[in-house]
Write a structure and sequence with these properties.
22% helix, alpha/beta, three-stranded antiparallel beta sheet, globular, five-stranded mixed beta sheet, 8 strands, Nucleoside Triphosphate Pyrophosphohydrolase
């Protein structure tokens, strides 16, 4: 659990944040170097590919960010310095949810961008209220999602993600509220600058979304 400043003050099970308390999740978008239909590739395409990111469909049918979870109460995942704890947590979640082999991803591969305070109502009962650490990965990896976590996954260019959000607005597709917030307020601004992200890193700011 965290205060509104992001400072941790205790532990919780996953349920309480649905009732208004704020856990500290890890939200991650994976950007491979090259785009290939049906997943990440180990070799570049013949022609230069536009930067793409991987998004996955939850079993509920909603498209979401590449990975979203919470750090465990372990020394490695509670380390605050340089967001090392949440980067360790992201590695664990990428392995568990997207099936990325441990030898293909490490905390050093993960870029901590910023923090945001997220609230979203899902229906009359459920909602989200979280302090989120936004992370990026740009690497070729093998993706083999856990079928209990993801129905499918897809690499998208910025234009394709914009189209998905438009289709969601028309009721023709479904995206999670946090994916829309992340895309519109952060990802679309960062996307053209994946080779030079330093100017966009705001480690000590909490964006109120």
């Amino acid at each position: 659990m965290t205060h509104g400043t992001g400072a941790p003050f205790g532990l919780c099970e996953p349920l309480p944040h649905r009732l208004g308390k704020q856990p500290k999740p890890v939200t991650l978008s994976a950007a491979p170097r090259y785009l290939q239909v049906a997943g990440a590739c180990n070799e570049p395409l013949a022609a230069p590919a536009r930067p793409s990111q991987v998004f996955w469909m939850l079993n509920s049918g909603y498209f979401s960010d590449s990975c979203c979870s919470h750090p465990l109460s372990t020394p490695a995942e509670l380390e605050e310095k340089d967001a090392l704890g949440v980067r360790h947590a992201a590695c664990r979640c990428l392995q568990a949810e997207l099936g990325i082999p441990p030898d293909q991803i490490s905390p050093d591969d993960i870029v901590f961008m910023t923090i945001y305070h997220h609230r979203a109502k899902s229906d009359r009962i459920w909602g989200d209220h979280e302090i989120c650490y936004l992370l990026l990965v740009r690497k070729d990896v093998t993706v083999n999602p856990d079928p209990s976590e993801a129905k499918s996954y897809q690499y998208m260019t910025q234009e394709e993600l914009e189209d998905l959000l438009e289709r969601d607005a028309r009721g023709e597709a479904k995206v999670t509220p946090w994916l829309r917030s992340i895309a519109e307020k952060f990802l679309f601004k960062w996307w053209p600058h994946l080779d030079e992200l330093a100017p966009f890193m705001e480690h000590h700011r909490i964006h109120r979304v």
